[in-house]
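Late entry, written up from scratch paper. The run itself happened at the end of the previous shift, but nothing got recorded in the book at the time, so transcribing now.
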Amino acid sequence: MWLNAVLRGSVGPDDFAAAVRGDDPQHLVVDWPTAGSMTLEQLPAAVQRASGTAASLAFPIAGDLLGLRGPSAFNTLALDAGEAVVVVGTRLGLVPGVDARTVVWQAGPADAAPALDRAEEGRLLRQALVTTTTELTRLDVASWEPEIPDLLMNVRHRPELPLPPGTEPRAVEDLERAALCLDIVELALGADGGARSAYEMSERRRCLTELDRAARRVAVAVCSDSLTGS
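Output as recorded:
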């Protein structure tokens, strides 16, 4: 989202780099054609020189290469990292990794997957959250993972996401809901020991897998929308 913001001129390269870097000591982009290695501050200009128009998020897991369309070498790197950015118009992508205290963004050939409908994915996530909450209540997940009801009851007290200025309220709302759902999935999948039967474990995993996919799709839809701030 920050790369899209700087590409459309709503934030500067320094603000973009500071937001992406966060508390990390250093980020470095490597193997970008014509530029080799460069800092985050230099990336937007390199993207524009390569005719890049927008950044698209990939959020893959095994069996669901969400946001990716190849080639296989890039898909493998992105799957190992669990995330990637594809730069639309350049046929290039970036996969983050950690080398010592430096976050290294490895550039390589990549194609973006077709765009998702942000409004439709948001609707499906709201529906999935209701269905999953009902199912988890039926399975009495709260009896062995009390943090889940706390998450649902304290949504308004969660820390704000570090989004670019001007991000429209619906995009913020959808991303916050997606982040909440991913937290629920992580907590609930770590509590298999509380299930009373193999059937309950299977049912809980099924509904959580559906919630996870819906949340990841919303994240990809919102973060890949180059007009998010319009």
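The helical segments are 2-7, 13-21, 43-49, 72-81, 118-138, 147-153, 169-189, 198-223.
(Scratch paper discarded after transcription.)
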